[in-house]
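re: ur question from earlier - yeah i can do the single chain one, its not a big deal. heres the input i used so u can compare w yours
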Amino acid sequence: MIGVAVIGASGYAGAEIVRLLASHKEVEIRYLGANTKKGLAFGDLFPCYGPLGAMVFGENDPDIYLADTDVVFLALPHGLSVPHVLAVLKAGKKVIDLGADFRFRDVDVYESWYKVQHEARAISEKAVYGLPELYREQIRGEQLIANPGCYPTGATLALYPLVKAGLIDLDSIIFDSKSGISGAGRGLKEGSLYCESAESLKAYGVGTHRHTPEIEQNLTEAAGEKVTLSFTPHLVPMSRGILTTAYARLNQKGLKADIGAVFDEAYGDEYFVQVLPEGSFPQTKWVQGTNFAALGYKVDGRTGRVVVSTAIDNLGKGAAGQGIQNMNLLFGFEENEGLRQMPLFP
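and the output i got, formated as tokens:
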């Protein structure tokens, strides 16, 4: 039995970690941190979580939460993780950061897109990017895991196998993603208010969204050369879920390839990735409340393009669920422990 601390537990992703860990047979939640909610009970904010409600929020203070903890989940906004990571590593414990601070191999890229100075460049080199379907062996036994962003998870799963196999023209990649409103976090924002977002659909961060360089980093690694792409996110009036559709032009090798076989080879043994038959496309409802990703594809012979869609829960495979999947790898647990929930439907 290992002890877990969740820092930032009053937000959507933090609360989702708590919900999922409640069914994990190998862990005990020993600390919930949230500076702005210090002294309140978890049940004051989340009455729906029953017996978990008696836990009380404490300060985000490493000197307190590390005393009885083996692994720390950080569910904090970007720019706030560094002091916690430094303290956890010094204590010889493990940390899974759901924020962006350690996702980039090139810290200059992080600073350019996030407009903050990174205070732990040397530590960034030790971080492992936590997308288990691609980096499972690198994750095992490490100390610092940088959980991927929600949009990059769906986008990377969609095209990584095809890029790695050299089947598409790298200058033709376009991602169109649509996310539920919980992706904006629990803080009050005008654009997230009901009257602003209900019965409406909008693009945002066009050409400037901070997840763009993270997707480019992943596909550049797959290609072995620089990948520059277009990424447009949209906000849709639903609570949770991300549907990402990728478009790419097949090269001559790709036009002759069996695209389904490429996906089957990449994900056929993956518990959390479901590859659908060609021409079938996923819905966000199919993965709601889970750590699963559903992938559909079609080769458009008329245009010479491949179209790939992935559906994930932005709070599941896009955040908390993937973090727990990484924790299971760190400690040698079954990878799906605590994550076997079936989707909520309807």
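Residues 316-331 form the longest helix (16 residues). not sure if urs matches, ping me
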